[in-house]
């Protein structure tokens, strides 16, 4: 008998006092009367004035229930032994998440998915993966969550932290009407149960925890939370892991929504690569609100501006969070991460400051095509692919070398780019040859192996009557592009302004860690052909 009573005491939420529950419900109905700029003491006095004297903990509990930011401050001590250090970005993220949550609570169609990019060490996981699900249950105890990360241990750590909050004495005193349901509490899945004002128990929402590549069969969530879907140590070099994470985000998790038109995805991470889950998600044709909070803003570097840009006014001497990410800390991170790592994880723009191999600001933009008679040599280099509608691109770059000691010496006249099958590709190559003329040297990159040789020979036959040859490059693309990048960075390469310009510059900025490299590779191939001095003059 004693054991049964003890079990009921541990597992069953205590029924709140009717008078207290009524006052709190009335306060919720009139929450619009509270001014956002009121201090906590002013709010307490207003509550006491309107609803009579309440226990101090009841007032603080109600304030925390209404504000995720306040909730984090009140329960920070459960997860950390260090005092809470507030900063403007914490409340800003909280407010953005709340906007998404209140639509879910009302079961309104979502306006967008939320993607937040912020540096490591800025309390992002505590806000989104640890505190937010618990706070949300205080306002809508029936909603369910799916939460995930790049690894199962990390995702379970976040889930355990939420469980610790609900199990602490302060939480049980402040919110005695909700608890984790006994018998429904495992490492990767648990459920709450809650008592209404009359003391009736109800089964509440569930929290499912998973990881990239993990199973989500049978799981459905009103809100899906993704915190760091890829390991920073793997993102730069492992294309296969990036693809696995992208498929998990946009195919696996997107199919596990409780209400398709209502359920939002909230993803928070540090940028790691152009084609990381953020880059992949932003490239999809879906409504996304993208928040970018770089660790610092550098004067004259637009890549370090936050999004939305008006957030720049909250930075202190160009720093997002002077306490957590002060100048000394950022200098140490630059040393540890290197330029590429720092550009992604701190700047939230995964190319080094000022660009990678290529300083695109040095690329000379021409408003019109030069006179053909001013050129000494002309080449069109083709980097071929054969994947219609996906994969790599077939790219042709027409480049001219100008006569005399002029600058820019090398000019990209046009770029042809597409994802075509082999038949359409060969038709386009022949069409461009007819347009560009017979005084152009056509170069076809020959891939290694017999298949690459046969493909190059097929194109050479297709261009019968034109000057055409195969090129068998050696070394990796980065090495082959090195001498071309030197000329670009010294302002010796120009490009005619056309519909290809912006995509070309973007690919250059991210090279060699970008999603695509075909245009850069073809440009380097064309340049290397022109830069080679032939005995006996030109071709």
Molecular structure report:
The protein is α/β, with parallel strands linked by helices and about 550 residues long. The protein folds into 3 domains: about 290 residues, Rossmann fold; about 60 residues, no CATH class; about 170 residues, Nucleotidyltransferase, domain 5 (2-Layer Sandwich). Helix content is about 40%, strand content about 20%. The protein contains 19 helices and 15 strands. An 8-stranded mixed sheet has the order 3-4-5-2-6-7-1-8. β4 and β5 form a beta hairpin.
Give short descriptive properties of this protein.
alpha/beta; 539 residues; eight-stranded mixed β-sheet; Rossmann fold; Nucleotidyltransferase, domain 5; disordered N terminus; elongated; single chain
